[in-house]
């Protein structure tokens, strides 16, 4: 029997990914949507999460696809209503909220799933396997894209809690925290911030290793790149292994040779994993990417740049 799912928030990511993927996954049945913009086909529609939870409609789980700022209260209310919760990335604007919700989900004996879509690629899995047990000597993240293309007219991303360039940058961090054999920490960060915005449009980050020895670990994030987008991660180890993840983690080069290239099926794998979690009764909560972003804001030095219009 399929799990009855509600999707809360029908913005771009829900329209592009969640709705079509759920439609072709036999483990789920779309039973309700919540959106202030209107409904979806003939699926029961509600204006607010509160209206949905009070409706009495049969649900097993909800996917939260709204911006992160209001998500804690909505997720908590969903758990209180006896529902399992999948959260689009990033799960919350603060680490504290994620920790509190993790405890609440455990108290309610409900499944909580923090999704990081860039982790769900075969090339990322293979990079993790190859780096297991090794010592990293160099890591460089080059993650540059065009904010006007990916977030047209979305003002929330420029407000406190909206992440700015870390909205895409956290995708890179999610890959890094998955593949690295040991944790890394933020050492210093420059946050290039438009004079008329609260969150950065670019960032240069220096990391430090948690392991003994020297390592050159850095990231360069930028939201001003036009033309071809750059979603690249390069890693070298002390024993000479050289890995290059390209195209957002869908391609892996080993020693300069293409090793893995697979079409992106990130959300298909996310919902496959969610179904497995529901069947097993286990949550999957990963706060490491959010912690790195939080630390960048904690240690970052603001550098004013031209207004973004």
Structure description:
- With 309 residues, the protein is of the alpha/beta class.
- The chain folds into 2 domains: 3-114, NAD(P)-binding Rossmann-like Domain (Rossmann fold, 3-Layer(aba) Sandwich); 121-262 and 294-305, 2-Layer Sandwich (Dihydrodipicolinate Reductase, domain 2), CATH 3.30.360.
- It has 9 helices and 15 strands.
- A 9-stranded mixed sheet has the order 14-13-12-11-7-10-9-8-15. Strands 3-2-1-4-5-6 form a 6-stranded parallel sheet, with helices on both faces.
- Helix 3 (71-80) runs parallel beside helix 4 (95-108) and helix 7 (166-179) packs across helix 9.
- The N and C termini lie far apart (50 Å).
Short synopsis of the structure:
With 309 residues, the chain is α/β, with parallel strands linked by helices. It is 31% helix and 29% strand.
Topology diagram in text:
Blueprint: E1 3-8, H1 12-23, E2 28-34, E3 45-46, H2 49-54, E4 61-64, H3 71-80, E5 84-87, H4 95-108, E6 112-114, H5 122-131, E7 136-144, H6 147-150, H7 166-179, E8 184-194, E9 202-209, E10 216-222, E11 230-237, E12 242-246, E13 251-254, E14 257-261, H8 266-280, H9 288-299, E15 300-305
Parallel strand pairs: 1-2, 1-4, 2-3, 4-5, 5-6, 7-10, 8-15
Antiparallel strand pairs: 7-11, 8-9, 9-10, 11-12, 12-13, 13-14
Helix pairs in contact: 3-4, 7-9
């Amino acid at each position: 029997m399929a799990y009855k799912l509600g999707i809360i928030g029908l913005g771009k990511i829900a329209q592009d990914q969640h709705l079509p993927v759920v439609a072709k996954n036999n483990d789920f049945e779309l039973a309700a949507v919540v959106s202030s913009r209107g409904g979806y086909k003939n699926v029961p529609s509600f204006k607010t999460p509160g209206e949905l939870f009070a409706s009495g409609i049969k649900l097993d789980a909800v996917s939260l696809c709204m911006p992160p700022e209001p998500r804690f209260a909505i997720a908590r209310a969903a758990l209180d209503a006896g529902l399992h919760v999948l959260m689009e990335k990033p799960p919350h604007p603060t680490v504290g909220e994620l920790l509190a919700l993790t405890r609440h989900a455990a108290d309610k004996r409900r499944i909580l799933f923090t999704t990081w879509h860039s982790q769900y690629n075969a090339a990322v899995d293979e990079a993790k396997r190859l780096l297991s047990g090794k010592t990293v000597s160099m890591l460089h993240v080059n993650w540059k894209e065009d904010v006007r293309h990916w977030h047209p007219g979305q003002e929330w991303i420029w407000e406190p809690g909206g992440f700015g360039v870390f909205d895409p940058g956290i995708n890179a961090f999610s890959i890094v925290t998955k593949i690295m054999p040991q944790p890394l920490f933020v050492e210093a960060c420059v946050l290039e911030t438009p004079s008329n915005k609260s969150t950065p449009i670019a960032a240069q980050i220096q990391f430090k290793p948690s392991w003994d020895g020297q390592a050159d670990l850095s990231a360069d994030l930028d939201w001003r790149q036009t033309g071809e987008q750059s979603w690249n991660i390069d890693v070298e180890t002390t024993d000479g292994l050289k890995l290059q993840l390209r195209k957002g983690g869908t391609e892996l080069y080993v020693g300069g040779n293409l090793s893995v290239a697979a079409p992106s099926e990130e959300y298909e794998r996310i919902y496959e994993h969610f179904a497995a979690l529901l069947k097993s009764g286990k949550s999957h909560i990963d706060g490491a990417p959010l912690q790195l972003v939080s630390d960048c804001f904690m240690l970052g030095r603001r550098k004013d740049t031209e207004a973004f219009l």
